[in-house]
Structure formats: structure tokens, C-alpha cells
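#struct-pred
JK: can someone run the complex with fe (ii) ion? inputs below
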Amino acid sequence: MAEAVRALGYVSLQSSVIDEWTAFATEGLGLMASETRVDGGLSFRLDEWAARLMVRPGATDVVDAVGWQVRDALALEDVEAHLTASGATVTRVGAEGAHARFVEDLIACEDPAGNRFEIFHSPLIVHDPLSVAPTSGFVTGPQGLGHVVLPAGNMPETFDFYRRVLGFAHRDSMLVSPPGVPPYRMRFLSCNRRHHSLALTEAETPTRLRHLMLNVGSVSDVGVGFERCQSKGVNLKTRIGQHSNDEMISFYLTSPGGFEFEYATGGLEIDDASWTTRELREFRLWGYEPLG
Ligand SMILES: [Fe+2]
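RT: done, C-alpha cells with the ligand placed:
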């Protein structure tokens, strides 16, 4: 096993409606706008990292890359060698690409489902005062940015890749049976104490990002966030509910261009020394009535 991935670091998106993103991310999600590039690309902060969410102008609304953090430069070399040995095609992104992601160095690759991801070390840390809407702030640190849910039509190969090549731990699986569509499987994995940093789903999605979960520090900030999104005209997808697997209390909303976000608090922290995997049939304990 290579030196394992430590945390979800950043997400980069391209959007056909870039002009709508600053208002959505700051007034809806409560993030801090940090930089506008000459090409019109935007970046947003939610902790001491210079950028955690990046959006650039594009013809379509699709995820560019999910960034996974490793410990240091030697760990990056180790993961690169392990990816190459597994048969994956790895691209050295170079200084310009690293600058665009606010990190010292990174490599780019694709998982077996075609999801583009990057592995990086040394994110740029800034000390300007942080202004975000949640009074409890965002929960990041060793648990990383949050979690992403990515499509994996070829679930067995993709699930294997994250476990065997990148060293993720399997936490839970779920058979989801929504009304009117065939049941599909989800697999939940992590690389730190967060219950899941990555979920894979057999359900496809046009943005190639089923959702990005941002973790606020209190139930109060989930409730206030819901009302803030409502008052700012953000497209709310569900009411507040609680998940059966990670026990997070959250709601779902949709960004300009159709990316889904989960605004959540209170997830389980897992110790792999004692954890055993589980199979679930219900995604919720309560709530999540659809809206809109
Ligand atoms: Fe989620």
C-alpha cells in the first residue's frame, strides 16, 4: 500500500453561469470570496486555506477535479508510483497548475469511472481574517473539506481502486430504492476520522458530482443556513433531515448550473481499529422531504 491519502482538500468546478457564483457561495453557503482571476475564475475560503472551492468559466457545468491531500512531497511520489504501477495514467501538472490550485505540487489522474482527481501536498495557508456566515465556522482540519459523492457506473472496479490503490477505508454500503427508479448501490469510504470523505454511487449525474458536503459546527448553523438560503432565493432541494449512516443533520441545495451541495453538521467520527463495515437500506432516520 502506498502512503495513503489523508483528506479531501479542494473541489474545482467549471460553470456556464460563473456570474451567479459569488452571490450564491457567499450569501447562500456562507463562504468567503478570496480571489477573482483574470480568466474570470473564482475561489472561495472557509478556513485558513487560501482556496477550498474553485469555479472557472466553462461551456458546461461539470466538476473539473477533486483534490486529495497527502502528507508531503515524498508521500506524493509514493502515491504517484503506486498509481502508475496499478496501470493508471498519471499527469504531472506543473508549476502553473499548482499555482492555480494554491498548492505546492500535484498530479492528476482519473479513476476507473472517469472521475478526474488530483493528489497534492502543501496547500497555501493564509492569515487574513476569515469572514464566513456560520457562527460556529466550518469543520475541516484533519477531517478535510467535507465529502464528495461521485458517480461510478462500474462500481466494483472503482470501489476497488479507491481501497486498494489509494488506501481508502470502507465504512458502509447502501442499497437505495427511490420511488419510480431502479434500486442502486452506494459505497461509503474515508481516509480519516470523518465517516465518509467519498461516496460512490451507481446513479449518474450530468455534473459528475452528485454532491459536495460542507460541514458546519452546529445544528443552529444548519437551521440558520436553511433560512438564509431560503431568504436569498437559493434553490433548496430538501428540508432538513438526518442520515442513517453518518448521523449528520443536513439539507440539500442546488447551485447555479445545477451542482448539488449538502449543508451538514454532527457526523460520526470513526476509529478504524474498532469499526466494522455495515449494509444499510435506508438513507435517512427522519426528514429530507423534497422541496421545489
Ligand atoms: Fe452527503
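RT: quick notes.
The pocket of fe (ii) ion is lined by residues 147, 149, 211, 213, 262 (CB under 6 Å).
The first helix runs from residue 21 to 28.
JK: thanks, will look after standup
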